[in-house]
Each structure stands twice: as structure tokens, then as C-alpha cells.
Design a protein that fits this description.
The complex is a heterodimer of chains A (110) and B (114).
Chain A: E1 4-6, E2 11-14, E3 19-25, E4 32-38, E5 45-51, E6 54-58, E7 61-66, E8 71-76, E9 85-92, E10 99-100, E11 104-109
Parallel strand pairs in A: 2-11
Antiparallel strand pairs in A: 1-3, 3-8, 4-5, 4-9, 6-7, 7-8, 9-10, 9-11
Chain B: E1 5-7, E2 10-13, E3 19-24, E4 31-37, E5 43-50, E6 53-57, E7 65-68, E8 75-79, E9 88-95, E10 104-105, E11 109-113
Parallel strand pairs in B: 2-11
Antiparallel strand pairs in B: 1-3, 3-8, 4-5, 4-9, 5-6, 7-8, 9-10, 9-11
The chains are: A mainly beta (110), B mainly beta (114).
């Protein structure tokens, strides 16, 4: 079983739509959960991180963690064409190693 | 805004040659990482580095690889005797502390082994 599972998409939505991106994981020891955005041939850019279960909001972005279900989500409200990118979930336990999902490719159509 | 910088942006090398990938982490960061991303695959952890020593490494990081912080600003990844399958994007990242889950990534070095 893979440590982190993420639907690769591609996901295509109209401008202004609400986008929901999700990851599941198998390791119950994961405590830190991150979402990165990666544009083509660029490095991952940290969007949000959360510790343990709960919600965190930053502007148009909301991250949710449900540790009981081993499920994390990223919601993007009022999506913009500039949001078009690959979104990577990542997580770690108390160690330094990050475990990434494969990434979901998102296209927001004007 | 401070950022992690990597050089070169693209490196082409012949199979069997040694390459050194260079990174300048954010200046007040103490934890340093190397990751790689083979084209079309997920980002994979290679190694973390703190206090001038390796703190954690993955199975990928075998004797072919080594890291070094030769001075106060650079962090390097050396790959000895490169193989075709070493072709990938290599990302350097840095973070303030080990408890800080935020790691800031550089733009990457694309390594092509021919």
C-alpha cells in the first residue's frame, strides 16, 4: 500500500468554481500535512500546512485534515486561471522525511 | 523575499561522470534537504542535513550520493558515477527548524545523464 495516494486528475474547472483536492494516507503516525503548488518545471511552492486534525483557512484556500479517516483536503474558492498548476499533498511524522502524493493537475478555464 | 537558489538550472553529463549540484539555502535556515522528481513521477525524499551531518536518508540515497555544506552558505549534492536512471529534477529545500514543517524549495536542477 502506498504511503500517500492522490488522484492525478487532470481536473478542469471553469473560472470561479470551487475546487476540491484530496489525499489519503496509510501511516497513522503522520502529524504534519502540507499542500504545495507546482508550476511546470518549477519547484514546489508551499501553500498551506496544518498540524494534526482540523481546518486552516488562508484567503481563498482552506486545508482540512481528518486523521480518523486518514484523509486531507484542499479547497480553492473562486478559482482563477492563475491557479492552474499541479497540487501536491505532502506529510510527515516527527522525522524529517516528507512523503508526497503524485500530484493533481488542475486547469482553471477562463 | 528570501528564496532557495540552485545552480545550474540544467546539467547534462555523460554516464559514469560525477556531478555536483549546488544550492544556497535561505540564510537563517538550519535544516537542509535534497529531493528528486523523475519525470512524471512523485517527488521523492533523498536526504536531510542538520548541524553538519545527515539526520535522515532514504533508500535511494546510497553510496553513490553524498552531501556537504562546505561553507556557511552552500549545500551540495554529489552524485558519483552517474547512471541513466539518475536523470531527474533535483530539488533543494531548507527550513528554519526540525519542528517547523515548512520547507521552502528551490527551482530545481534538471540533470540529464546521456
Amino acid at each position: 500500500q502506498k504511503e500517500v495516494e492522490q488522484d492525478p486528475g487532470p481536473l478542469s474547472v471553469p473560472e470561479g468554481a470551487i475546487v476540491s483536492l484530496n489525499c489519503t494516507y496509510s501511516n497513522s503516525a503522520f502529524q504534519y500535512f502540507m499542500w504545495y503548488r507546482q508550476y511546470s518545471r518549477k519547484g514546489p511552492e508551499l501553500l498551506m500546512y496544518t498540524y494534526s486534525s482540523g481546518n486552516k483557512e488562508d484567503g481563498r484556500f482552506t486545508a482540512q485534515v481528518d486523521k480518523s479517516s486518514k484523509y486531507i483536503s484542499l479547497f480553492i474558492r473562486d478559482s482563477q486561471p492563475s491557479d492552474s498548476a499541479t497540487y501536491l499533498c505532502a506529510m510527515r511524522n516527527t522525522g524529517n522525511q516528507f512523503y508526497f502524493g503524485t500530484g493533481t493537475s488542475l486547469t482553471v478555464i477562463p | 523575499e528570501p528564496e532557495v537558489t540552485q545552480t545550474p538550472s540544467h546539467q547534462v553529463t555523460q554516464m559514469g561522470q560525477e556531478v555536483i549540484l549546488r544550492c544556497v539555502p535561505i540564510s537563517n535556515h538550519l535544516y537542509f534537504y535534497w529531493y528528486r522528481q523523475i519525470l512524471g513521477q512523485k517527488v521523492e525524499f533523498l536526504v536531510s542535513f542538520y548541524n553538519n551531518e545527515i539526520s535522515e536518508k532514504s533508500e535511494i540515497f546510497d553510496d553513490q550520493f553524498s552531501v556537504e555544506r562546505p561553507d556557511g552558505s552552500n549545500f551540495t549534492l554529489k552524485i558519483r558515477s552517474t547512471k541513466l536512471e539518475d536523470s531527474a529534477m533535483y530539488f533543494c529545500a531548507s527550513g528554519k527548524t526540525g519542528m517547523n514543517t515548512e520547507a521552502f524549495f528551490g527551482q530545481g536542477t534538471r540533470l540529464t545523464v546521456v
